[in-house]
């Protein structure tokens, strides 16, 4: 397994995801989404598996102004706005090769090889 966890140090679900893999002795790479963000390719591959760009966004996030701006941005510009503001992405984003999940999904991770 080649696990990557994209999240923030303050996110409880990200901490729970890290604990899940640690307890099972599974190595993972943590990427702080606020510091490094996601590349366009990474974001697109995760979005594709998880139902598209709209599903990648945490619409219940704190920054209501930014979320409103993204919501009403033209579709062709939405991706750029989200990549510029990675704090709006649902966390954790957990990747295992081509597989990925959004949020805390231990039942799905248990099935990964």
TrEMBL record:
Superkingdom of this entry's organism?
Bacteria
User: InterPro entries from the entry?
Assistant: Arsenate_reductase-like, Thioredoxin-like_sf
Which Pfam families does this one have? ArsC
Matching entries from PANTHER family are given as: ARSENATE REDUCTASE, PROTEIN YFFB
**Protein family (similarity comment):** Belongs to the ArsC family.
Q: What is this protein called?
A: ArsC family transcriptional regulator
